[in-house]
From TrEMBL:
Domain (Histidine kinase/HSP90-like ATPase): residue spans on this chain: 12-125
Protein name, entry field: Histidine kinase/HSP90-like ATPase domain-containing protein
Database matches in PANTHER family: ANTI-SIGMA-F FACTOR RSBW, ANTI-SIGMA-F FACTOR RSBW-RELATED
Provenance organism: Herbidospora solisilvae
A Pfam cross-reference name: HATPase_c_2
Alphabetical list of CDD domains matching this protein: HATPase_RsbW-like
Domain of life: Bacteria
The UniProt record lists the keyword tRNA processing: no
Keywords: Kinase, Serine/threonine-protein kinase, Transferase
SUPFAM superfamilies from the UniProt entry: ATPase domain of HSP90 chaperone/DNA topoisomerase II/histidine kinase
InterPro entries recorded: Anti-sigma-factor_SerPK, HATPase_C_sf, HATPase_dom
GO molecular function: protein serine/threonine kinase activity
Length: 131
């Protein structure tokens, strides 16, 4: 399976609006690739990962988004400056948040994280072609 080097890497302000901006950028990139069939899933995963990155970032900071193809899959990578790993939460039925990574886990082949040598962490998700 050939790995395509990231064709889109972009920095966004660590602000809640960045999730919508990133979602729109990813949708346009998928359309350019002719992969509109993945748009709903990839956009949702992107928005969840960017939202999480914004929550752990310093005010006035930045978060990064990388998107590339690997065979038939699309890989989304989100960088933030926090070194702590992401945590799956166990929200109660009345909690209004805490379900983002559970959703990412359901929608993707796999997700995980790594610590780049430049600092912070990268959370990634691999989204397959629908069956």
């Amino acid at each position: 399976m050939a790995l395509e080097v990231a064709t889109r890497y972009e920095l966004f302000p660590a602000h809640p609006r960045s999730a919508a901006l990133a979602r729109d950028r990813v949708g346009a990139l998928l359309a350019h690739w002719g992969r509109g069939d993945l748009a709903g899933t990839v956009e949702l995963v992107t928005a969840e990962l960017i939202s999480n990155a914004v929550k752990v970032s310093e005010p006035g900071g930045q978060v990064g988004l990388g998107v590339y193809r690997s065979g038939d899959a699309v890989v989304v990578e989100v960088w933030d400056g926090e070194r702590l790993p992401p945590r799956l939460l166990d929200p109660g039925p009345d909690d209004i948040g805490g379900r983002g990574l559970m959703l990412v886990g359901v929608l993707t082949r796999r997700w995980g994280y790594r610590w780049p040598v430049t600092g912070g962490k990268v959370v990634y998700a691999v989204i397959d072609t629908p069956m």
